[in-house]
Structures
1.
Amino acid sequence: MQPLTGSSELLLMLLADARLPTAGHTQSAGLEPAVRDGLTDVPGYFRTRLTSVTRVEAATAVVALHHLRQDRPLSPVEAAWAARTPSSAMRRTSRAQGKALLRLVHRIWPDAAATATVSDLAAPGRALVLAGIAASTGLSPASLARIVAYDDVQTVASAALKLLPLDPADVACWVHDVLPLAEALAADVAGLTEPSSIPAAGAPQLEAWAEAHAHTTRRLFSA
Amino acid sequence: MRRFAFNGVPCSDRALRIGVCGPVGTGKSSIIALLCRELSAPLELAVVTNDIYTDEDARMLRAAGVLDPDRIRAVETGACPHTAIRDDISANLIAVEELEGDYTGLDVVLIESGGDNLTATFSPALVDVQIFVLDIAGGGDVARKGGPGIERADLLVVNKTDLAPYVGVDRDQMVADAEAARSGRPVIALSRLDTASVAELTGWVRHQLEHHRSGELVPQDPGPMAPHSHAHDDRVHSH
């Protein structure tokens, strides 16, 4: 199949669509253990993630895209991401999501060189696989970062409707209202090129929740 | 016609993937435990469970001691059991492929859907054959209600037939209703206390495995819609 050209907007819609079969329905972006621990402020949770773990993911994707375009090895980018993702449960989740996405990518773009490079890593996280898609299809760094940010927000939002007594229209309003922050995140990280410039924004409470969730025997969502 | 996986390997070389679905409490886990107990000596088995809210089913199977616990993997479905077996099968497929990678020479992987409603069926991209499970205690009228799984799953099991006298259900009538709804497709009236019915079930599995190994098995989709015939002609339309 030919890479899609001339309409990165449609490609973005495809990648951001929850109906894309990449097991997105199994994810709550850490919201489930947070709710179990008493969290109810979903918009605050969006913002916390966008300024911490999601910022790391988006920056990783952008730097990986630069490395793919410059034909530089990806392993330093992956190492930088792993060093900034201290929770092994979070790394495992990102790699599981990367695996599901890579599986689909091989079907949609079977001949893409960039995704082959990403596949050479033992277990690429989701940000690296998204970078491979962007490199294969001509997406800009800012678009790539927007996808990472938007997907995280919507993952939280759809899980929130299952976990908390909310009006779905309220949640859609919250998503809309946080879009400027997602846009600002994309603008901040879009120019990054070096692994050392990936922000190291720790979020110990999110990490503790992720670790606790990995060990519970009662859960709706994988993570 | 021989089927091939995306990587070019013939499907008949990998394990037979059997889906088990049906409403909550009809005995899906018990049937899987039964199959493991009966078949884990002659065959290499593994199980993927799709619990709704706990890993209860996976733990129950592990505790039953009928299979190496590592061969039983639980997949979370984010409260969407139907999605996980039909419109986004990625999590289940990855679990199946990881089991096939960890245990070479698997004969059968059993995939247990989270209990869902009467419209849930597996995607033919996830399983080769599927079993739909009802139980006597769920009411004698359920088989008559029909639906894609009841009417067109590869096998319909009417489970817990030994309970019929206690719940006021006419077992023979329920089985007859099920057979009438299925146009000749197989129905097994199962009780774990009835060894003949257990042998019928294991025989069906072994037959499907032979069919799969020969390369002749082509997954049949029970589909979401009931085919219906128009009064004016004899053809059956499937929409």
2.
Amino acid sequence: MSGPVSGPHAHGAISLRQTMLLVMLALLPATLFGLSIYGWPAFNLLTVTIVASLLAEAVCLVIAGKPVGIYLKDGSAILTGWLLAMTLPPWAPWWIGVCGALIAIVLGKQVFGGIGQNLFNPAMVARVALLIAFPLEMTTFVAPKPLFTESAPDFVQSLAITFGGGMHIDAVSSATTLGFVKTELGRHNPLDGALSQVFDLLNGFTGFMPGSMGETSAMLVLLGGLFLLYRRIISWHIPVAMIASITLLAGVFHTLSPEHFTGPLVHLLSGATLLGAFFIATDLVTSPVTARGQIIFGAGCGVLVYVIRSWANYPEGVAFAVMLMNALTPLIDHYVRPRVYGRDRKGQPLVYKGESWERDSEASR
Amino acid sequence: MSADYRRITRNGLWDQNIVFSQGLALCPLLAVTGTATNGLGMGLATTLVLVASGLTVALARSMILPEIRIPVFVLIIAAIVTLVDMGMNAWVHDLHKVLGLFIPLIVTNCAILGRAESFASKNAALPAAVDGLMMGLGFTLALIVLGACRELIGSGTLFSHAELLLGQGLAFLDITVIPDYRGFLIAILPPGGFLILGLLLAGKRLLDRRLATSTASAAVPAHSC
């Protein structure tokens, strides 16, 4: 097949810029919640990450000789920085955000040729690289200290935390649910009793617990995800397949051995499960095109997340799982193709009832 | 074929650099370049093997039947690598411990068989030895550059433990460039090796293109491969 195919192509009215704005709108509730419970340091980190993303994008565009203004205004760099910041520990120092933004934009996106060309989700590339390069900073989480309460740092103190390296880590650090589970299992403690110390269903749902900046609130992330579904920015296939496979695996193993495996609700409500399912795995560039392909992709993400959380060295595996499935996306798209109009799934012409059609199709075989 | 030593030198060091142009020998390259010192040691060992195997193959080329040339080349290279391995174990034992398995594995380095097949088996002894030397030095250059970049970014030092390779006299090469550096661990891990190699390759292409456009006015034809 060569050249463009003429045919009844429908024009999508929605622009790239609108898509990005709608995703940002969907992220807004969870982000505002994250900022309010982790305070000014989280705000500083989010700002630094987004500004660094924009600068990195601009420099890359200049080097590549592309029009800077048009590409910057599409909002994709802002969204990448934003998503990355959502997955960072909220009190991380500024250089975590800057390094992450550089890795995401330069290595994750622009070396492949810019928007739409990247093989891996840029935010996840950066998150994985940061986790491997700076294990201490990337796993130091704080307990919620809501804005304008006694325990929260004011703006000046937050500058010291983000930019001065003045954080007394031991004083404020607190384990995430998944990190706690990993530690307890490492000490060969049975889970059922210990888990109630850190995990509580209500807090897991509202998000009032230690964790990354924008992942903790299952409720608000879900709200944003449903908004994206409603506006048809994403389809249901990837989130549903991913959540279903995690639930199924967690349910089976929890039933078999509750002292070694946490239940489905813990898996769904902690870590980046929902953020990953609705906002990260559904990235239009790095996920399969067809509905069946998306179901395979989503289910693969879910299985990998569960496997990494349960049996690998890291407590959380959404970033790794999404990147591994990103690598499989071209393969999935190669094998799972939509049926061509007038032909069956193998590409043969459809056989209609009627002698002449049957004879034709016999001959063509 | 009359030997053009300038051409051979230029090819070995730059135009047909084993790593940066041919894209060969990436396995030892990525495996040992955690520090510049390891890169230097590995590069010198490989250079020694390249010179010796080039010389031997060129001398023996009239006796080798074309049908069995590959097994014979492999035998020659394996014998030389074994000698180098034993020699390094005896004289630079500490470095040998660091490089470990990668010294005997020089025998599987495709670049060495490649030079034996494509150059030494068709040329006289002296040009073959010079080709081995230049290709080896080019490879050493690549190893040092990549090792230095990874070491600098990953741990903020240059040529750390240089005394292992070169003796106490050259311990001054061991520099801590960035004191109190937190370390950027990924640069020393395998993914960092791939990333930095990719950036270096892009840099070499860019440089070549710049050079080509600046000499285009002098109507110099593009170099052949």
